[in-house]
Amino acid sequence: MIVPARERLIVALDVPSVAEAEHLVETLAESAVFYKIGLELAIAGGIDFAGELIAAGYQVFLDLKLHDIANTVERATRKAAELGVSFLTVHAYPQTMRAAVAGRGDSELKILGVSVLTSWDQSDLAAAGVEASVAATVARRAAQAKEAGVDGLVCSAEEVAAVRAVVGRDMALVTPGIRPTGSAVGDQKRVMGPGAAIRAGADFLVVGRPIIAAPDPKRAADLIVGEIAAAAAI
User: Fold this and answer.
1) The domain that contains 91 carries what CATH number?
2) Where is the Orotidine 5'-phosphate decarboxylase domain (predicted)?
């Protein structure tokens, strides 16, 4: 299945209020059709807003990074499926992923396992007690995600090619930490430009600050979609 370039861009609504998120969606108009709602906005009323976006014909990525006892994850995932969101994230631990798959059932919800956060590097893993390298940890979690039956993975664009070698073409790879040329890196440590990420094998790109903090968010989104289209055509 070929996904249009505009649907491969997921705009992260990393804003503190539903009012700001609504304004951003209005500003972007048809430049973006897929939006991510994370923890901050979810707590500020973003779950109801997700329902409004879905009713208006947009796709929604609910980025809650679930990780709890299996029963809780399964039931929370079932609620997300009932809401009609397209993607839901869980941390890529075997029990958590299996519970999310059970909660998804036969719905159209896609479960994404978060391998290693793109704001982490080797020193962060070490501080958390993980002795393996970032690359080895991502590869191991990718293999576990495939075994658990999730639909895709969230990983840095730097790891996309290696992850693809582990999971094959059937799983979607979603990459945050996308920074167009000239954009500030911020708190991200493993980043890549839009075109390079697509050429590396990413299916969807999550972009927040380079769009929402731009002087002209719509133009910023259009330029990224153009990069995606150009890279996908190669």
Assistant:
1) 3.20.20.70
2) 8-224
| Mean predicted lDDT score pLDDT of the chain | 90
Measured in degrees and rounded to the nearest 5, phi and psi for residue 72 equal -65, -45
Of 65, 110, 146, 189, the catalytic one is 65
Rg, C-alpha atoms of the chain: 17
Question: Distance (Å, rounded) from C-alpha 171 to C-alpha 158?
Answer: 17
Query: Could you report the per-residue pLDDT of 45-94, keeping only the tens digit for each?
Result: 999 999 999 999 999 999 999 999 999 999 999 999 999 999 999 999 99
- Whether the pLDDT of residue 188 is over 50: the answer is no
Range of the domain at 205: 5-233
Encoded amino acid at 75, one letter: R
Total number of domains constituting the chain: 1
Residue type, 180: P
Hey, what long-range contacts does 72-75 have (CB within 8 A, 24 or more apart)?
73/99, 73/100, 73/103, 74/99, 74/100, 74/102, 74/103, 75/103
Count other C-beta atoms under 10 Å from residue 132's C-beta: 13
Is 65 annotated in the active site? Answer: yes
